[in-house]
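Illustration: FAD:protein FMN transferase.
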Amino acid sequence: MRLLLHRLSLLTAIMLPVSGCTAPADIHDTRFMMGTLVEFTVTGIPRETAERAITDAAAEMQRVEDAFTIYGNVSNTVKAFNASPPNTAITLPDEVSDLLELSLQIQKQSQGAFDPALGGENLLWGFSTDSPPVTPPAAGAIDKAMAPADCVRHVSSQWLRSDRRCLLDFGGIAKGYAIDRGIAVLKAHHIENAIINAGGDIRLIGRHGNRPWKIGIRHPRKAGEVLLSLSMEGDKSIVTSGDYERFFTYNGKRYHHILDPKSGQPAMYSQSATVIAPSATLADAWSTALFIAPVSPLPQSLQLIRVDASGKVYRSATP
Ligand code: ADP
Ligand code: MG
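Result:
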């Protein structure tokens, strides 16, 4: 996760306005977190109840950001792990340990496309810093930053890193996890119809009055245009990874923030990958993975809408 400011126009997915029948009374609130604008929409309950719930949900999401970020001044156990001497086991809080376990599982399932130990390369490229890069790193620097494969290990209930270059970075999954925690807090406040939209990463519950929620997926090359609009209800997450939010062009080539762990270079397989999944955590991690490389067969609980490097749109069958 980064501490960088996003502009509203860069959101990867948007909630489409309701047209036609009378819209239910929505309660909206926006907070700045995780380097992006997080929009809360709750419907069908009194404003004061909704506002209390949103305040609690936002506090929980901020707690998650602080627990996982490797940027900024907060201290946390992820940074402590990244500073730990090689081959020395340290204890991580259950929450961090669990998300790391899941990340490593997704790394395996995605044949290495998703890599939670890519912190060295991410820091080198610097897309998540307050002064984003305008040129690629110097030749040789990427090779030097690359950690050996499988450098993070579970040793009984503790974790160690086998090499100094091995740095955890939950930037590809923690925003989704924060959204899931936010929704859990809203549910604990007995809210049944809501959306949390963190810069285009969305989880929704229930319905929008007497109709499904309407979600628009941003076109990866036509700013302000919707690639696809979807009606969704129940409890679903939809997250997009794209090459158009954080990028620079250098010598006519686009460089962006989602790296192929094989090369340490921006992945060139897609313009965007949108994943619909049962949780925002899974949707977030898998949208990053499937942006980078194909995975066959696609895990059963996932739906994918991908725009390839030439702009062609692929859509998986509905599970
Ligand atoms: P966004 O943060 O823009 O929503 P993603 O969810 O796709 O986009 O996550 C991109 C972030 O994930 C990067 O900023 C970096 O912190 C991290 N990252 C980059 N490449 C990978 C990768 N191959 N596997 C896991 N995380 C990655
Ligand atoms: Mg992601």
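Reading the tokens back as a structure: The two ends are 30 Å apart (CA to CA).
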